[in-house]
Write a structure and sequence with these properties.
Number of strands: 35
Number of helices: 1
Strand order of the largest sheet: 4-5-6-7-8-9-10
Shape: globular
Length: 473
């Protein structure tokens, strides 16, 4: 799927958490020089490249003494020190990193599931919107918050939801009732909207996502027309996974909102005799513009005696530039089988190209490259990397290699970071050249696999020494 497809556990889960995170500290400890000591960083025993100058006007913090990070400058553009063994936690808002500081001057710790702060009672916090390139505080916002959660605004723009709650006391008969309100802020710290009766994980692209019977309803929080996800079929029940942003029917899956479109599901039940189908509809108008029911089935997909695919499993992988990329399961749904990826033109419906793909996919930020990703409960032979435009394989893992589970690409797609299973007790981080499979760094700890701000190409890591932000190489 887009961004982080597939399910990870153990080391993988911790690594993915750093895209949202860091840990606690105090501004009073901002000492030292962010540029010092960067030249002696190593990766897999190799000497780091020549240090790059720190960004002009950058916040000065501790020096970085960890391994070199391929795809990034040898020393950080800026850094913040840790307090104890925890680095400051962050939410990535695209060119802005958000930090939350309490009244003691300590930063919030490691977020989980996109939550920078999560407390039983509202507490005073100062939200710092810091420039990714320099660390400068663009805006400091004082709030009282129970939770601080990463969400998205219209067109997928990063945003943050700050919640507060009020409780009405019981009169002896009625139960006490707690109501939560979320205030949404953009990456510049400006207020976007207020959302009453808010529930965690229910905001996507500025729409409230609600279960409506056996289907889903999308309601814009700043006013406008609601949309309903079609979900037909006997005992059909379509659902939404807030962690992945996916809508799911019986065996069909699609991003709930992507590129200005939302899906619908037909025959979305095991009780139906007709194949399950996915539609795409314009978010602005509600008009259906495309359906797998009308799509030409790509070569390589096995058909039954009625001309339908043997497997009904299919998923929308990506929507971009007026085209949709669909994954079709090639064989019977009773076996793992292989997958065929096919590009379709949304306006004409024409099949543009198709090639062998994978069930789960990790895309590069631009979407021009993809890596085979882990499928839960299935054996994973290792990854492969290909061009999404035509399916051309750049490389594939072979027998005898340690299985590489991809985590993320750098913003320019030149480096792929992942974790390898070498049959030891602990998985280790690794960086490889996306085009050649050359190992650029190995034996990286989980904390040294950088998160990537795709808007700027900057990378950041949180270690027991602090938070370190690097310019792209």
């Amino acid at each position: 799927m887009n961004h982080t497809s597939g399910t990870r556990a153990g080391a993988r889960g911790a690594v993915m958490g750093m895209s949202l995170v860091g840990m606690s500290l105090s501004l009073a400890l901002l000492t030292g020089c962010g540029g010092d000591g960067g030249g002696d960083a190593t990766a897999g025993g190799d000497k780091a490249t020549a240090p790059a100058p720190a960004a002009k006007g950058a916040v000065k913090g501790p020096a970085y003494h960890g391994p070199a990070l391929p795809g990034f400058a040898a020393r950080p553009a800026w850094s913040l020190p840790a307090e104890g063994t925890s680095a400051p936690g962050v939410l990535d808002l695209g060119s802005t990193l958000l930090l939350a500081k309490d009244t003691r001057g300590d930063y919030a710790g490691t977020p989980t599931e996109g939550m920078l702060s999560d407390s039983e009672e509202a507490e005073p916090l100062t939200l710092e919107f810091r420039d990714v390139k320099t660390g400068a505080v663009r805006k400091a916002l004082k709030v009282r918050a129970r939770t601080v959660e990463a969400v998205t605004w219209h067109d997928g723009a990063p945003a943050v939801a700050v919640t507060s709650s009020t409780t009405s006391k019981s009169d002896g008969l009625t139960e006490a009732k707690t109501t939560t309100t979320a205030t949404l802020y953009g990456a510049d710290g400006g207020e976007l909207a207020k959302v009453p009766s808010y529930e965690r994980g229910t905001l996507l692209d500025g729409y409230r996502v609600e279960k409506a019977g056996d289907t889903l309803r999308l309601t814009p929080v700043d006013g406008g027309t609601s949309r309903t996800v079609t979900c037909t079929g006997t005992v059909a029940s379509c659902t939404y996974d807030a962690e992945t942003g996916q809508a799911d029917a019986s065996v069909a899956h699609a991003p709930l909102i992507s590129g200005g479109y939302y899906p619908g599901f037909l025959n979305a039940s095991n009780y139906q005799t007709e194949p399950e189908q996915i539609t795409l509809n314009e978010l602005a108008t509600g008009k259906q513009v495309w359906s797998t029911a009308d799509a030409k089935i790509p070569e390589g997909v096995e058909l039954d005696d009625k001309g339908h695919p043997e497997s009904e499993e299919k998923r929308i992988l990506r929507i971009s530039g007026g085209k949709v990329l669909v994954g079709w399961k090639a064989g019977s749904s009773l076996s793992s089988g292989s997958w065929i990826h096919a590009w379709y033109d949304l306006k004409s419906g024409a099949l543009l190209t198709s090639y062998k793909g994978a069930a789960e996919v990790l895309f590069s930020p631009s979407g021009d490259l993809a890596a085979r990703d882990v499928v839960k409960f299935e054996d994973f032979p290792g990854t492969a990397v290909w061009q999404t435009a035509d399916g051309k394989r750049l490389w594939e893992q072979q027998d005898g290699e340690h299985t590489l589970d991809p985590v993320r690409f750098t913003a320019d797609g030149s480096v792929l970071y992942g974790v390898t299973d070498d049959k030891s007790a602990t998985d280790t981080g690794i960086a490889v050249d996306t085009r050649t499979k050359k190992v650029l760094a190995k034996n990286l700890s989980e904390e040294n696999i950088p998160s990537v701000d795709t808007a700027t190409g900057y990378g950041y890591v949180g270690t027991d020494a602090g938070l370190f932000v690097f310019a792209p190489a």
